[in-house]
Amino acid sequence: MSTTELLEQASGLFPDEVVTTAHVRHFDLPLGAGRFALITLDNGLDHTKPTTFGPASLANLNAAIDQVEQEAADGAIAGIGITGKPFIFAVGADLKGVELLKEHEHALAIGKGGHEVFKRLAGLAVPTFAYYNGAAMGGGVEVGLHCTYRTVSQAIPAFSLPEVFLGLVPGWGGCTLLPNLIGADKAVSVIIENSLNQNKQLKGKQVFELGIADAIFEGADFLEQSLLWTAGVLKGDVTVERPEIDRGEAWDQAVAKGRFVADSKVHGAAPAAYRALDIIEAARNGDLQQGYDAEDQALADLIMGGELRAGIYSFNLVQKRGKRPVGAPDKSLARPVTKVGVVGAGLMASQLALLFLRRLEVPVVLTDIDQERVDKGVGYVHAEIDKLLGKGRIHQDKANRLKALVTGVLDKAEGFADADFIIEAVFEEMSVKQKVFAEVEAVAPAHAVLATNTSSLSVSEMASKLQHPERVVGFHFFNPVAILPLLEIVRGERTDDASLATAFAVAKKLKKTAVLVKDAPAFVVNRILTRFMGEIQNVIDEGTPVETAEKAVEPLGLPMSPLVLLELVGPAIGLHVSETLNRAFPDRFTVSPNLKAVVEAGKRGFYVYDSGKPELDPEVAALLKQGDVVLTEEQVRDRVLDAVAQEIGLMLDEGVVAEAQDIDLCLITGAGWPFHLGGITPYLDREGVSERVNGKPFLAPGVASVPA
Amino acid sequence: MPRTVRDVVFVDGVRTPFGKAGPKGIYHETRADDLVVKAIRELLRRNPGLDPKKIDEVAIAATTQIGDQGLTLGRTAGILAGLPQSVPGYSIDRMCAGGLTSVTSVAGSIAFGAYDAVIAGGVEHMGRHPMGEAVDPNPRFVSEKLVDESALFMGMTAENLHDRYPSLTKLRADQYAVLSQEKAAKAYADGKIQQDLVPISVRRTTPVGGETGWGLVTADEPMRPGTTLEGLANLKTSFRVHGRVTAGNSAGLNDGATASIVAGEDFARENGLPVKMRLVSYAFAGVEPEVMGYGPIPATEKALAKAGLSISDIGLFEINEAFAVQVLAFLEHYGIADDDARVNQYGGAIAFGHPLASSGIRLMTQLARQFEEQPHVRYGLTTMCVGFGMGATVIWENPHFEGDK
User: What pLDDT is stored for residue B404 in this prediction?
Assistant: First the structure.
């Protein structure tokens, strides 16, 4: 099939593509370097809608190359360039098109289509130049890699090959060309490390220093200077020198480093990084076509695999659903928040004060029961501001401003009389919290929202004794609050829309991913994690060795093992939450006697790290009283996943959240569960657990899987 | 405190290629501030001896100071060009003589000792800011007959100038225009113009003006080489039925920017900067607004008197060609032939275009090149007419002058 036919067929499968035009414009270069054809990639929209490549877009670029190929052959032009619309070069394949693919052969065609078009840029009668003028990602970066030369703007904010992050490989030449251009070590950094490091982006300067671009120019006249440089290259006045690539042992070491990074991040649970590394490994011989063929196969396999679909699903959850919370009231109802009160001045309260201060930049007042605690809380915030200043993250003026905004007082009436949003972070005990809210209500303005950071108490009950329970909302952060994006916003039985809208507006300013949650025990993340951990604890209590229980869930590729997580949370807190849930749902949530013993013994975790890696603490081992039922890893995994699937099914039945998507969004942003699991429900569906436990999948086919 | 007046020199000047205003023009989708910013950057690249930290001022002229020509362009252009934040800037307006006035204003300050080195420039994007945009003339101008209504329309003032000097016929104006196009074409062929042009990348998103996408502009768009008298004879006289002023014998509506470095001569020498011209004197004069094209004559009289020179001392003239008749009025006044070789050797605004506030510095940049080539010339002048009845003249000395050998 010809490239044109291939792309036409693919285009038929993707009728809603935002099509990129490849404009061709001719002009004379400076210095008398001759006639030049410049291709501009432009989807006709502004910079907030970056240019992408779908099949029709590739066909447009192909047609543009047809034109300049002829002109080059005829001697009508001395060179060919390619650049993007203002602020954007191109950000790669259009993922919406990838989601629609159902057949392996169609997926294969996507890879081939891109290759067939892009690689022509390396085989024309005149040199080709890519001018990375703005954001370049994935296929955008790759189209430039096929060119003879590249320049990059110093003003570029984002340049990456993010495919592995999503569950793909840079499959339009990236895996093959990049190591051959800059060496395997740097290529592994860009393709594997950056992707798995929360999709880290390169800046223009780094693109140049890595050797991806041959020249770098400032943003103000980037294209003019690039074209002047081009004229110099074409006239022979400028020679481009690239360092020799080490194709020896360094290549193996680079690939080995990549595998180590992949293992530490996804534990073998997601295939993309490993497929990319295989291609990089093979690219050492410089056989480009062999590399492109391998990329095609890898792309097609991954596109037809569940991990990518889950990855795209996760990406969309975080990027879209996370920004427009489902079920939130109309934002016009939100009241302005010009001052924040924090009840309590302990560590959690101080961290919250710092967060509100940095994001809202309004006065924040802390209160506590004695001056010493108040001073300590304010002191903590000041010290954190100084740390930010020391790291150069904020300017001295900003530090001065923030420090002046935070105060501490003993008298709530003095502190909260003009506060619009008051959050409590006091001891996790219903009577204490009710008392605190009653005191606050007595002094706070009538419109103030009263928020609680409770992780397990009922918000409705907490509000029940107030004169105005309608203004109480749950505002549940995850530790560390400065880092984990999730904020569970809890609507109590009587919470009104205006208070809830205000809570969502504050969450947005805090740059948190807000999810609306019903006032149910332990809300979402803690309930699922506790059920998950509880089942691990159960099998250990029944007799399965700790090591087997831990290894059983390794194939999920979670950020850490269950017992390491327990250590991070603190065994005492874990025990407390399990007791709360045990009271609510005694049939499903148990309180492990072994965990109780560990907590009572004052142990902070199950492991010691004397050898550098976690080993079961002998003192803990001595405390454990196990039964005699020893399960295999597979049996443990089944039990744990069944429990999780059951719990999520029940939560959805109870209406804890609107949809399974919210569960997954919570797990990704609040517990760091990986993209390739799609949170968890796509994985449970894919592995048949949902069907086995609940008789049906959580998500319709195609939502986070290959469409039927 | 004792004070010594310093000599002020023109160090260097560049400009963007000039474009035609309007939807088909090369700069239709290019911002005015970007044009002047790119000119400033090129100037700095060409003069690495000038430490940007030592620039004392950025003075940028524009006639319509709103939108991308507003916001105190001298300051914003400096920041956008990447100058240190410590370098201040301001905006200037004297309509067509804005750029010329930016040079003379900073020159006065340099001579006084307030500055050492300054960026002076001008920009006008007449496509984005058509002449008369958002103006609000005081009704007293008309009710008290302070000026005739025609004073507000430059083309009508040019017709008025033809009325005043019946010897300045349409034929002479057309002949002058043909000559300007010929001289400009020759200057291009000889590579005189391109050396001071800053290439500008331009984007086009609609096909009305030609191929779409990013392009690069390296030459003036308005030029019409091969213009003939016959061709000009049939053009419409846009400002008056049976008039004399046509699009062919006047400058068009244009987009473009210029920038220059002006410095104290001592500073330029100490920093190894080129000295292309030495300022001798400058003057501005007012005339009846209805015949604003007459302005260069009294302005030149004043400038010559201040310099103690006479017109015969001037070896090269760069006269802005807003209208051919305005140049002819000047030449006739001084008894200089319409085709005198000392006048506008590279052609003028009729060929290159006249983006109002930027043009004065184009005249200087061209005069500086002519000084380099003609060391037997000691003095030259740049002059232009200005809206609402003004004229502006700067007299320059050629530092390459080799005496009477």
Answer: 64
Q: Quick one: CA dihedral A676, A678, A680, A681, positive or negative?
A: negative
Report helix, strand and coil shares of chain B as percent, to nearest 5: 40, 20, 40
Element (H, E) at A365: strand A364-367
Nearest by Cα to B395 from B298, B324, B311: B311
Check if the beta carbon of residue B251 is closer than 8 Å to that of residue B223: no
Amino acid at A630: V
Of A268 and B45, more confident: B45
**Total domains, chain A:** 3
Assess if residue A678 is contained within a domain: no
* CA–CA gap between residue A601 and residue A597 (Å, rounded): 6
Quick check: A469 pLDDT over 60? yes
pLDDT of B405 above 60: no
pLDDT of residue A220: 97
Closest to B257 in 3D by CA, of B54, B69, B22, B29:
B69
pLDDT at residue A2, as a whole number: 85
Q: Is the Cβ pair A223, B216 closer than 8 Å?
A: yes
Q: Helix B324-333 vs helix B296-307: angle between axes, to the nearest 10 degrees?
A: 40
Q: Which two tokens stand for residue B390?
A: 């003004």
**Per-residue pLDDT tens over the stretch B380-400:** 999 999 999 999 999 999 999
Residue showing tokens 């895996």: A175
Does the pLDDT at position A614 exceed 90?
A: no
More confident residue, A162 or A10: A162
CATH number where A257 lies: 3.90.226.10
At B64-101, the pLDDT tens digits run 999 999 999 999 999 999 999 999 999 999 999 999 99
Mean pLDDT of A334-343: 97
Domains of chain B: 8-129+170-394 (3.40.47.10)
Q: What are the two backbone dihedrals, phi and then psi, of residue B354, each rounded to the nearest 5 degrees?
A: -140, 80
- The per-residue b/e assignment along A239-263, b for 16 or more CB within 10 angstroms, e otherwise, is eeeeeebeeeeebeebbebbbebbe
Which of the four pLDDT bands, split at 50, 70 and 90, describes residue A559? confident
Half-sphere exposure of B221 (CA within 13 A, CB side): 24
Q: What is the 3-state secondary structure (H, E, C) of B64-89?
A: CCCHHHCCCHHHHHHHHCCCCCCCCE
| DSSP state, residue A336 | P
Q: Which residue of B has its CA nearest to A222?
A: B201
Q: Flag whether A406 is in a domain.
A: yes
What is the nearest CA distance from B192 to chain A, expressed in angstroms?
14
**CATH code at position A440:** 3.40.50.720
Question: How, if at all, do strands A88-90 and A615-616 pair?
Answer: unpaired
What mean pLDDT value characterizes chain B? 97
Check A25 against B215: CB less than 8 A apart. Answer: yes
Q: What is the CATH number of the domain that holds A643?
A: 1.10.1040.50
Asked if B37 reaches chain A (Cβ–Cβ under 8 Å), the answer is: yes
A169: closest CA of chain B, how far (Å): 31
Q: Write down which residue in A490, A518, A546 finishes a domain.
A: A518
Q: Are A85 and A229 within one domain?
A: yes
> Distance between CA atoms of B359 and A361, rounded to whole angstroms?
49
DSSP secondary structure letter of residue A93: B
Mean pLDDT of A389-397: 97
What count of other Cβ atoms lies within 10 Å of the Cβ of residue B5? 10
Q: Could you tell me what percent of chain A has a pLDDT over 90?
A: 90
pTM above 0.90, yes or no: yes
Residue to substitute from B33, B200, B216, B217, interface A, most A β-carbons within 10 A:
B216
- Chain A residue numbers with beta carbons less than 8 Å from the beta carbon of B212 are 21, 23, 25, 40
Contact (Cβ atoms closer than 8 angstroms) between residue A475 and residue A337? no
Nearest residue of A to residue B30, measured between CA atoms = A86
